[in-house]
Here is the input.
Amino acid sequence: MAIRVYNSLTRRKEAFAPLHGNRVSMFVCGLTPQDETHMGHAKTYVAFDVVARYLRHKGFHVFYLQNVTDIEDRIIDKMKSTGRAWNDIVGQYFAEYLGVMARLQCTSVDVYAFATDYIDEIVEQIEGLITKGHAYRADDGSVYFDTTTFSGWGKLSGQKVEELRPGARVAVEERKRHPADFVLWRAQKPGEPAWDSPWGKGRPGWHIEDTAITIRHFGPQYDLHGGATELLFPHHEAEIAQAESYTGVTPFVKVWMHGGMVMVKGEEMHKSLGNYWPVTAALKLYEPEVIRFFLVNVQYRGPIDFTPELLDEAKRSYERLRETVRTVDAERRRAPESGKADRELRAATKKALADFDAAMSDDFNTREAIAVLFDFARAANKAIETGAGRAALDETAAAFRTVGDILGLFLTPAAGADRVDGLVDVVVALREDARKRKDFAAADRIRDALGALGIVLEDTRDGVRWKRK
RNA sequence: GCCGGGGUGACAGAGCGGCUAAUGUGACCGACUGCAGAUCGGUUUCCUGGGGGUUCGACUCCCUCCCCCGGCACCA
Here is the structure.
C-alpha cells in the first residue's frame, strides 16, 4: 500500500515518494549529550526508529542519519559547574544514550554525526552565506544569519515575523540586527572550547551543524527530516533558511515530520518542574519492551502522558499480545500437521498483515496497527482453542515476527537447543503421569520448579503447553 | 496576541460523509479448570466541547465561540 505521511511543511498528508528511486535519505535531530537521556528522547527516537524500520520493510533503502550536538551552551554550562572537559561530558552521556537506545531496540540509525567533526563544512557554509549576503559578522567575531534576506522565513512554522514576540522565552541578543537573526558562529569567550575560523576562534551555532552534516551526506536536498515538535521553530525554520540560502535549492527537505511531546500528568516534562523521567529510572520499573510498547501505542504526532497508571496499563496490554505470541510458539511444538481451524487462522493472518500494513502506511499509525494486532491475537487464540495445525501456526508466528520486527516488539526469548526442548517435553510428560495419578503435589512441584527456570506450564483442555518467559 | 496540534465511553485512544463509533485497560457475568495460569464468549459506558451552516445524511467538511497542550527566536 502506498505510504502517506503528514508533512509539517504543507500541513497535510502526502503520498510518500523519495527523490531518487527507492533510496530514502532520512535525518533526525539528535540530542545534546549533557545530561541523562529522558523519556522525551525515548519517544522521539523510538518513533523514528519505527519509521525507518517500516520504510525498510516496504523495500526502501533508508539511510538514517542522526546528528549529535557535541558543543553547545548547556555543555559549556556543565563544564563550568563540574570542571570537566566538554568532550568528557559528551562521551559519558552519549555512551549512556547508546545504551538506553539499545535496550529500547532503537537499532536503525546508520550514522551518528558529531557537530565538531564537521567544522570544515560549517565554516564553508558560513563563508558561502556571508559571500551571498545572507550573513554578517558582528563586532565580537560572531556571525549571524540575516533573516531579512530569506523570503521563505516562516514557511515551515507558519509564523509571520511581525507577529512573533521577541524575547518571549529567551532574551534577544543585542548584537543581532534583527531579533529573528540567529547565530551561525559564536566567538570564543575565555575558557570555552573553540575552533579556528576566518572570523577568529569560536564554535558553531546550534542550527548550522545540521545543514552542514546533511549537505555533506545527502547533498542540497533530501527526503525526510524528523524531530520533536518543539524544534519546529526556530530550529527547523533556521535550517531551511540556511540551506536554501546557501544552495539555492528548494525545498531543502521534502517531508518534515514532527513528533509529539512526553507530558507528565498533563505538564511538559522538565527537570525544573521536578517531573523529570530519565529512561534509566523508567527502566528500573518497567521492562524495555513495555516502555517501547507504551511509546508506540500512540500515533507519533500526538503527545503522551507519562504516568505510572498508564505504564501499568501498557504493561497489561502488551502482556496480552506477548502472551499470544508465546502461545503460538508453544502450540507449534505440539500441534498436529493440520487442524480444524486452519482455514480461519490463515484468513485471520492474511487479514492482520494487510490491515497492519494499511494502518502503518497511513502516516505510521502505530496505534491503529496495534489495534489490528489485538484482533489478530484474539483470532489466533480462538483458532488454537478450536484446533490449529502446525503449518498454519507457522504462518501466524511468522506474521507476528514480521510486525514485531517493524515495531521492535515481541523479542523472542533465547530459544534453547532442541535437546532442551526435548528434555522439557520429557519432564512435562512425567508431570502428566503424576496428574493422572492425582498426585497433584508432585505435579505442582514440577510446575514450580520449571517456572523457576523460566518455563511456564499451562494445562489446557487438550493437554499441556509450555512457554519460555 | 500570533502559529501549530487537540477536545470521542470510568480511563487511554482510533476511525470514517451513511455500516451495532475500533482497540486496550478497568468493572461485572459465564465457559474452561484438581489448583494455578492463559484463553474464549457476553455485558457495561460515549450519538463524538457549545452554537450555526453545507448535505438526502456529519463525529467526519465550512464558520464561530469556549477550553486544553506545545511554540514564539540556543528544549527530543
